[in-house]
Design a protein that fits this description.
With about 350 residues, this protein is mainly alpha-helical. It is about 75% helix and about 5% strand. Strands 1-3-2 form a 3-stranded mixed β-sheet, with helices on both faces. A hairpin with a 7-residue loop joins strand 2 and strand 3. Helix 2 crosses helix 6 and helix 2 crosses helix 10. GO terms for molecular function: metallopeptidase activity. This is Zinc-dependent metalloprotease. Keywords: Hydrolase, Metalloprotease, Protease.
Length: about 350
Amino acid sequence: MGYVDWEFAKTTGRTLVPAGPTVTRAEAEAEVAAIRAAARAAREPVAATALLDTPDDAPDALVVDRATWIAVNADSMSAMLDPTFDAIIERRGEAPHPGVQAVGSKVTGAEAGALLAFMASKVLGQYDLAPGGTPALMLVAPNIVAVADELGVDRTDFRAWVCMHEETHRVQFTANPWLREHLVAEARSLAVDLAPDTERLTELAGILTEKLPEVFREGSAGLTELFTTPEQRERLAGLTAIMSLLEGHADVVMDDVGPAHIPTVAHIRARFTQRRKGVGAADRMLRRLLGLEAKMRQYRDGAVFVRGVQERVGVEGFNAIWTSPETLPMAREIEDPHAWVRRVHG
């Protein structure tokens, strides 16, 4: 038995996730076909704008509902984290009692399922790294429909806009195959490092009671701010810098491609940015608890970084960033694009 009951996580997620927009079967099928076509149409302009070569035989995007997104991500989390749990147990030198593990796996499965349910109603698309499996571009149809209607924007243009962003992620990883394995390895290594021992758990319980209100302040990095050492936060900042790069680059490419292919792109960007600022109080608190609010700010910093580098050395000069792990930006360079240019280009 594993340390997280991932099947229970899927069941919990499916139970908790809100229903999507109400549409007829014919409307749903038409929307899925339109999203899939928009994803195919995004390939050539994204690759041309990013100046990155990708395989010509890429499979079509997977257009999914919220429950399927939960199931796919639960499988990917299992592939990502189960080897990590084994490494943690090996490091501690003692496996938990089978009975305790059985109960614990249900608890952690429920927690994972609740988190997946929350995210499943927010995510528009994703390039699933699928550790140990086959990576795939996923687009969440009910969320694309719901957000387009919420924003009051043209559905056709919004589909194209989302697909430009998510297609950029596919290009990033397929043009640079080493990047996927590097990111998976870094995430697994960090997860092992972050796992506390028994003594640290007791200490953290006291810290949580004393400092939990700080987690909810604006700009908080969430629970990780309480549970990590300075050295661990430095490693986490390095991984976040990579994520900031990936999201920022996708935003830049999406907005650069947009004007030539999406008539209402400026209106969509303005409405989408306004929506980010206007989340409800409960949603905002949960985002702060999970550190998602700080990550959103860092993603915006990623776009500023990409723009800053490209203004100095152009798109081709920027693409040196994809050469190796050593050319990826350091955490401090995300806020100082010229520092990256000096380090990499001299």
